[in-house]
Amino acid sequence: MSMTTTATNTNTSTGTDPWLVRWLPLLAERAGSDPVLELGCAEGRDTATLVDAGLGVVAIELSSKAVERARTLVPNSAQFHCQDFRDPFPLTPAHATVGVVLASLSLHYFEWDATLELVRRIHGVLRPGGVLLCRLNSVNDLHYGGRGPSSSASSATGRDEDCFYLFDGFPKRFFDRAAVERLFADGWHIRHLEEVTIDRYAHPKVAWEAVLEPLPQRP
User: Phi-psi region for residue 53, left (φ > 0), alpha (ψ -120 to 50) or beta?
Assistant: First the structure.
């Protein structure tokens, strides 16, 4: 597991976010012939990167307008579903399990118990040898609602909900390293965990980037 503690800039030019490129060989290996399950695809930026790399995608997005734009951007090799991904995943019996789940900046909008349940469901849909690749808000994401390390649940009161609050009218959760490790403490191997800076928005955004492998379920 990477033990990087300072934010690393993963972009090659201002305003871009080519973060998936370094993970494509791993994703292709673990996906095999099955589609990638993408949770929260927004307008299809990451979906397009996956499809361009030869991967099929089953993508879920709550916003109908974003789904329309994603279908225009990626007209082939991807299935888009407009739904809450806390509902059952739209997988067919032929692909009831997958080798890759992608969740970029989409798992940090829920109360702690709901987030844990979602992580358990992701574990259940990944076949042995699969991977979850995700990005999560960092407490150091000061431009977009983070309040710094002193606000983190592990260093303040110990209550996870202290890092879950409204920002610009939307509920958002912010993680320090300890909170990420707690989230994936049951049944996961943390292959990689790194705090990164994303240069995609009006201001730099700080997030945790994680690659996780499901461990066998205990009897």
Answer: alpha
Entry pTM: 0.89
Quickly tell me which residue has 């979602």 as its tokens: 118
User: Are 92 and 58 a contacting pair, CB within 8 Å?
Assistant: no
Tell me if 76 sits within 8 A of 82, measured CB to CB. no
Can you say whether the dihedral through the CA atoms of 141, 146, 149, 155 is positive or negative? Answer: negative
Which tens digits make up the pLDDT trace of 102-132? 999 999 999 999 999 999 999 999 999 999 9
Three-state SS at 125: helix
- Beta strand 36-39 with 205-214 is unpaired
The position carrying tokens 């995700």 is 134
- Grade residue 11 by pLDDT with cuts at 50, 70 and 90: very low
Q: Rounded to 5 degrees, what are φ and ψ at 118? A: -65, -40
Write phi, then psi, for 102 (nearest 5 degrees).
Answer: -115, 130
CA dihedral of 120, 124, 129, 131, whole degrees rounded to 10: -50
Q: Which of 195, 170, 202, 207 is nearest to 62 (CA)?
A: 170
CB burial of 90-123 (b: ≥16 within 10 Å; e: otherwise) equals ebeeebeebbbbbbbbbbbbbebeebbebbebbb
DSSP class of residue 102 equals: E
Give the count of beta carbons closer than 10 Å to the beta carbon of residue 34. Answer: 20
Gyration radius of the chain over CA positions:
17
CB atoms within 10 A of CB 30: 22
